[in-house]
Amino acid sequence: MRSTLESVEPTKVRINVVVEPDELRPAIDRTTRRLSREVRVPGFRKGKVPRQVIEARIGREALLAEAIEQEAVPEFYAKAIEELGVTPLSRAQVEPPDYTDGEALEFSATFEVKPELELPPYRGVEVERPELEVTDEHVDAQLERLRDRVAQLEVIGRPLAKDDFAQIDLRATHHTEEIPELTRTDFLYEVGSGTAVPELDTELEGKRKGDILKFNATLPEEAGEGLGGREVTFQVLVKEAKAKVLPKLDDDFAQEASEFDTLDELKADLRQRLEGAAEAQRASELETRVLQTYLDQVEVPLPESMVHDELHYRANRFAQQLGRMGANLEQYLEAIGQTSDDVEADLRAQSERAVKAQLVLEAVAKAEGLEATDEEVDAELRRQAQQVGRSPEEVRKALGDGRVGVIAGDILRSKALAFMVEHAEQRDPAPDDASEPKE
């Protein structure tokens, strides 16, 4: 067998294969044996029909065509791509084989491959250094959140106001039929939280223990199928009115809310945690800036099959996210004021960007001779196994060789990005342009 490779497009190649007659004979023999088991010929048992009878039954040309299409082309196509060292991304389009009985078989196959990239310099990518400052205000905000978590509820005699808590019996009916999903007993409700219907917050403000409320409200579409859009009558008994009492910021609070003895120790720990989160955020933001800056500088031909697969993955993930939110596509589009074409265009743009980043990082890894070692792959498998509570062997078996290869690819691309970040040129941000850490 002889094979040659030629480029058709930046992301497509064609292989040309020539198979000599003696190499083709085993494929014809296998086809003959298979047909002898499938073709019914009176007087012969299945699998015992001689070749001459098979040829007489279906014709020599039909036998050869079957052997070439079903046996020879797949076999020698696989041998050719291995011999040439190419990895198809798409199913091959095989041009009709040129074959004359007794002569060599010739055929060509075209398929997508990853492009060979000539990258501009990826060392010294210039970006603005992310600046995330942890201030006293950030520490104080964390303290307030901690105070809120350990706050006590105390009974009050005054009327209910926003942020107070009402202990209520809530009954919802449609006409005279009770709605179990909305009926609660001893329900502790935060006034102004908006977790029910807006009318409940309005009706509760200014009320006291013992007050009885009755009002109608139209349920939002988020209430679910069969409830959304329905007008419901609510009856509410206010059984108790309570207010949140925040503890005093002192050493006693620190001992109650944490493992520390003093408020100063608690503040120092909160600041250290915020600094750690800010550092992680800075590192992540720096990676994003380096990669985005470099991608804007390079042109990459994108294999459509890779874009298609990435788009399919993102569309499925998007649908799952909508499902977890209890919404469908129509509701989402109405909420954001877009069309399905807008969403699809956005997902495609994201997919193209992701594929471009993948190809660029793989090219950087190849240029720098980076590798994903077996030890690194095993460490990642152990991490994933720990997350799902299974053994690494079980996870490896469940993933299969293909997915384990994906893990190795992820590690390799992460190394390439880390290399680019390490060699990036960071400039100071413009005055008054420092970002704040996410709390």
Q: List segments where confidence is low: pLDDT < 50 over at least 5 consecutive residues.
A: none
What is the annotated CATH architecture of the largest domain? Orthogonal Bundle
Q: Provide the succession of SSEs.
A: EEHHHEEEHEEEEHEEHHHHHHHE
The top level CATH class name of the largest domain: Mainly Alpha
Beta-strand level of the residues, as a percent range?
15-25%
Count of the separate structural domains:
3
Characterize the biggest β-sheet.
6 strands, antiparallel
CATH topology of the largest domain: Trigger factor, domain 2
CATH superfamily membership of the largest domain: Trigger factor, C-terminal domain
Q: How many individual helices?
A: 12
Give the fraction of residues assigned to helices.
Answer: 40-55%
Mean pLDDT: 89
What does this structure look like?
- Helix 6 (251-257) packs across helix 7.
- 17% of the residues are buried.
- The model has no long low-confidence stretch (mean pLDDT 89).
- The protein has 12 helices and 12 strands.
- Strands 6, 7, 8, 9, 10 and 11 form a 6-stranded antiparallel sheet that branches. Strands 1-2-4-3 form a 4-stranded antiparallel sheet.
- Strand 1 and strand 2 (12-19) form a beta hairpin.
- It is elongated, with a radius of gyration of 34 Å.
- It has 3 domains: 2-112, Alpha-Beta Plaits, CATH 3.30.70; 152-245, Chitinase A, domain 3 (Roll), CATH 3.10.50.40; 255-298 and 341-427, Trigger factor, C-terminal domain (Trigger factor, domain 2), CATH 1.10.3120.
- The protein is α+β, with helices and mostly antiparallel strands and 439 residues long.
